Amino acid sequence: MRFNHVAKRHGGSEVLRGVSLDVQPGELFGLVGVNGAGKTTLLRCLLDFCAADSGDITLFGIDSRNSRARAPLAFLPERFEPPPFLTGAEFLAYVLQLQGQRYDAQRAAAIVAALDLEHAALARRVRGYSKGMTQKLGLAAALISDKQLAILDEPCSGLDPKAHVLFKRLLQDMRERGRTVLLTSHALADVDALCDRLAILHGGQLQFVGTPDECRTRFGAATLEDAFMTCVQ
Ligand SMILES: Nc1ncnc2c1ncn2[C@@H]1O[C@H](COP(=O)(O)OP(=O)(O)OP(=O)(O)O)[C@@H](O)[C@H]1O
């Protein structure tokens, strides 16, 4: 995955000012930044939900605006809002159908168990789900088809501590199986523990790209939190 001098304005402000970044196959990569830094905007450009003003993005060597480039990709949006009238199972079946795959009850049971979403919830309408249950369903929908690349915008948002731990195990398992993950997170402890590399987006530009250790060294900090604070001051 390659971002090449990506620029994007919203209204009068330059949200992205020439962002260049390579994410390697098999990497678990964390994109961090303060609220409004432009993380979601960068992902939206990658997914062709909005057009970059300049620059280009490639996925698997293909321009990301080409739907073929996005076929091996799963995405969890920052605000996941499934149709409330569907049951959890119907939603997973719908997502799989969009990808030309059939709903497999065993596979659905396995992924919801891995995220600690109670199995009975699959038969219930999504409108009755709590915030955390909805997030678990979003993660299940993103991960059920085991795509080569997962783009996850704040995946831990709303997860209870148990689901959080289980989700981190799922991510580690994905890495062991060679999957590539690009996630945004405000939880720097997660990024430190899980991510091979991270990028700090600030002022419309990447202020740092490297491993958590390199980040601490670069900013002369003992913790990733302190390094981040120094970076975004
Ligand atoms: N559709 C839009 N129209 C106008 N401005 C927008 C739009 N989308 C994003 N912005 C602005 O672009 C900036 C970056 O927003 P973005 O959602 O990308 O930040 P973020 O880093 O994901 O923030 P957060 O951590 O709060 O989710 C913000 O100032 C936001 O108000």
TrEMBL record:
<dbReference type="GO" id="GO:0005524">
    <property type="term" value="F:ATP binding"/>
</dbReference>
<dbReference type="InterPro" id="IPR003593">
    <property type="entry name" value="AAA+_ATPase"/>
</dbReference>
<keyword id="KW-0067">ATP-binding</keyword>
<dbReference type="Pfam" id="PF00005">
    <property type="entry name" value="ABC_tran"/>
</dbReference>
<dbReference type="InterPro" id="IPR003439">
    <property type="entry name" value="ABC_transporter-like_ATP-bd"/>
</dbReference>
<keyword id="KW-0813">Transport</keyword>
<dbReference type="GO" id="GO:0016887">
    <property type="term" value="F:ATP hydrolysis activity"/>
</dbReference>
<protein>
    <submittedName>
        <fullName>ATP-binding cassette domain-containing protein</fullName>
    </submittedName>
</protein>
<keyword id="KW-0472">Membrane</keyword>
<keyword id="KW-0547">Nucleotide-binding</keyword>
<feature type="domain" description="ABC transporter">
    <location>
        <begin position="1"/>
        <end position="228"/>
    </location>
</feature>
<dbReference type="InterPro" id="IPR027417">
    <property type="entry name" value="P-loop_NTPase"/>
</dbReference>
<keyword id="KW-1003">Cell membrane</keyword>
<dbReference type="InterPro" id="IPR051782">
    <property type="entry name" value="ABC_Transporter_VariousFunc"/>
</dbReference>
